[in-house]
# Entry
Amino acid sequence: MENDLKQIEDTKKMANDKEVIRYTKELEDKNMEISTLKQELETMRKTYEVQFSKLEAKADAEKIVNDKEIIKYVKELEDKNMEVSTLKQKLETMKKKHVKYNVHS
# Structure
């Protein structure tokens, strides 16, 4: 009977040992999977950071170009307004001269 009890205990111990080994293996597998996923995540994060930086730099460059174009067009508009003003003054001067000429004639 003692021998049977010892055999049952040994069988239980072997079953427990096998279960511990199986759980340990599962745990190692899950840790490996987590590590792989973390590496993939880090790689993706770095890739997206680089892409974001490129897009941000491109947007900044386009903003600079747009700002320069706006400044150019504002300056051009100011020049045209000045030209219109000058032409209006010349026209008024010519009208006055014409009226003056017609009055004396």
User: Anything to note?
Assistant: Residues 56 and 82 are 38 Å apart (CA to CA).
